[in-house]
Amino acid sequence: MQINVMGKDVLVKEGTTFGELAKDFREECVGGIMVAKQENRLKELHNVIHEDIPISFFDITHEEGMRVYQRGVSFLLVKAVWDLFGKDASLIIEHSLKGNLYCEIAKPRITVDEDLLRKLKEKMDGYVKADLPLVKHTCRKDKALDIMKKQCMLDKAELLRFRRASNVNLYEIEGLFDYFYGYMPLSTGTLNLFELMLYENGFLILLPQAKNPLNIHPPFHLQKISGVFMEQMKWCQLMGVANVADLNNTLVRGEFGELIRINEALHEKKIAQIADQVYHKIDQVKMVLIAGPSSSGKTSFANRLCIQLRALGVRPHKISLDDYFVNREFTPVDELGNKNFESIDALDLKQLNEDLKNIIAGDRVEIPSFNFVTGTREHKGTYIQLDKDEILVIEGIHGLNNKLTSEIPDENKFKIFINAITQLNIDDHNRISTSDSRLIRRMVRDNQFRGRDGAATIESWNMVKKGEEENIFPYQENADAIFNSATIYELSVLKQYAEPLLFAIDPSKPEYITAKRLIKFLGYFLAAPGIEIPNNSLIKEFVGGSCFKV
Questions:
Q1: Which residues neighbour 409 within 8 Å (Cβ) at sequence distance 6 or greater?
Q2: Which of 83, 87, 262, 321 is most buried (most C-beta within 10 Å)?
Q3: What mean pLDDT comes out for the span 154-181?
């Protein structure tokens, strides 16, 4: 049959696999082909081609290709730990850090040092050189459970216990079986670019850069962000919930309400601590700047922080940076000629700094209001004048960028970064993407309050992430305090809102690939009602019922 492959018409013999066909297109891809796409569906390379539908191949420069590469390298590491220490050793892939993966080894206690990393790397390089096949086995759930238990992967056995599907896909490298959430490479030979580096209590797997795939991500040491991850790991231990199976078991045991209350108490305690930090600098600090990516819960956090400040005798005045947008005709454009509302130059920085300087000086200043219908700034008689023990609380995506308030002395500013940094894992080898968690939050909120369907939210998500990478994340280490708005329970609650939106996405749409992946992801969670979530919770900003105006 004749098929259009990567823009070329190709004669494909019956029984040909995607992997066999991919060999003819290796020079058109960088760093090895990881997965194929056919009619908005991803296809693993071992699959046989059955339809004469156009085919695309994804390498690691594509988001889906990079996901496959990460899983493949993770499996190499699992295999190396297994071969060095046996089935009793426990490798945990905790989270992503600037495109790299943070890992720890436990049970039994193993000293992670340079010598250990050298041995692991040698093992992994050996698997790559041998180009071992990653064999996919589809077996009944009871057989998969038995295999996982025999290999002492009890976290996976417990996870699979909650799976409704009768069959489970396991992957094998030379007798080692594992379960992974998502597609895998055809063999180990294409996984030839990675490094291992000591970090915190464990180590990092340094992975290729999507934009520069022949080079690995540099080993940034994000001290403040790493501290938040470590704190969240302690919270997970405190709540006794390290993975999805643990979370599901809180529902089975009727302890979900208690879990909510503990998590919300930890949030309230952290917000109170940040308010205390501001209060102790109140003689100098005149403004709190709050920044964070989409769906991090900035609005609810700002409201809760204001309450904590009021409890300390500090009166906050809130300012939204959106009210300082330049008139729409002067909005800068991006490389495609579209208006770029995410750019810091979309704000009238001169007017903002003038107003802030005058407020700090004790003057009475009229604050503008942006009319999103007419695209112009208006003045409606809203004035701010700071008295003693009063402070400005300013929310917007550029709050950590020094260019925003370049004319304000640093000692007058307190900067807060907020993000939903997910620490809960699916299991020891499958982490939960913070980006996916925020996408699910945003999808639910967009539908609840903005009338958008799931496809529209997914379609715009890459542009949202691009704006965040340019305007927010480069400045996160500038923060004086970081608040993690993720709750360990939220995906069990968001599941019931998100699944109908995802199932409604037509397979003919490009967004179906993401929808299918998220449907499988949410399938690991038991659904939980949100009736015990307090109305000041950040999660109420997304599902409704918040006591704050959001």
A1: none
A2: 321
A3: 94
- Convert the pLDDT of each residue in 501-530 to its tens digit: 999 999 999 999 999 999 999 999 999 999
- Smallest CA-to-CA distance from 194 within 202, 186, 204, 185 is with 204
Please name the amino acid found at residue 280: H
Cα separations in angstroms, 20 against 15, 52, 72, 131, 133: 10, 16, 19, 15, 14
Q: What's the pLDDT at 98?
A: 82
Q: Is the dihedral of CA 132, 45, 204, 206 positive or negative?
A: positive
Query: pLDDT digit string (tens) for 434-468?
Result: 999 999 999 999 999 989 999 999 999 998 898 88
Contact 488, 424 (CB under 8 A): yes
Global pTM? Answer: 0.92
Write the pLDDT tens digit of every residue in 299-314: 999 999 999 999 999 9
Q: Which two tokens stand for residue 99?
A: 């495109």
Kindly tell me the burial class for residue 526, based on how many C-beta atoms sit within 10 Å of its own C-beta (0-12, 13-18, 19 or more): middle
- Cα–Cα dist 254/90, whole Å: 29
| DSSP code, position 329 | G
* Sheet with 481-484: strands ordered across: 315-320, 390-395, 287-291, 413-419, 481-484
SS3 4: strand
β-pairing, 390-395 vs 315-320, is: parallel
The token pair at 499 is 């699944």
Residue 550's pLDDT is 62
Of the candidates 521, 524, 423, 421, the residue with the CA atom closest to the CA atom of residue 94:
423
- Three-class secondary structure of residue 408 per DSSP: coil
Q: Residue ranges of the alpha helices (H) in 86-188?
A: 114-130, 141-150, 154-161
